[in-house]
Amino acid sequence: MSFEIRILCFDQDDPKKCTAKRLERFQLSSNYKSFKALPPRGIVLDPFSEKTLSKEDSILAEVGGIVGVDCSWKMADQTFAKLRLMGLEPRKLPDIVPANPVNSGKICKLSTAEAIASALMICGEKEQAEEVMSIFKWGPAFLELNSLVWE
């Protein structure tokens, strides 16, 4: 089984480095450009949420999917505040170390693809997480680097 992956994209970062756009190109996600277009169901990965994503949330992800948000870290506060009003279930991720070239080693400053793969691993969808990360040179290193988090 695999979960539906939806990404809300704001085009605030360098398009050449955008992991969300790459996921869409490889048909691993459905990307949306506005709050109104995004179906209001599932778990939204929100670094400001009070609740941490856990294996128990896999039922929510199975029913409604996982929603990632592709925005600049500089504008994250305002962006996630709007999402909380949409009825999505917000969940933050545990402390995870990114391997992407932009924020490598900066705990919790994940790319959209890393956040999605982390959520998949936590919810028990290892094969789907590996597929997501396989399209990035640094993807396998990310999964190995954080393997203890997901055990």
Please give a structural write-up.
This protein is α/β, with parallel strands linked by helices and 151 residues long. The chain has one domain. 32% of the residues lie in helices and 13% in strands. The chain is built from 6 helices and 5 strands; from the N terminus they run E-H-E-E-H-E-H-E-H-H-H. Helix 2 links the parallel strand 3 (43-45) and strand 4. Helix 4 packs antiparallel against helix 5. The longest helix is centred in the C-terminal third of the chain and has 11 residues, at 112-122. It is globular, with a radius of gyration of 14 Å.
Q: pLDDT average, as an integer?
A: 90
How many strands? 5
**Largest sheet report:** 5 strands, parallel
- Spatial strand order of the main sheet: 2-1-4-3-5
Question: What's the gist of this structure?
Answer:
The protein has 151 residues and is of the alpha/beta class. The protein has helices spanning 19-25, 58-64, 76-83, 112-122, 126-133, 139-145, and strands spanning 5-9, 30-32, 43-45, 66-70, 89-91.
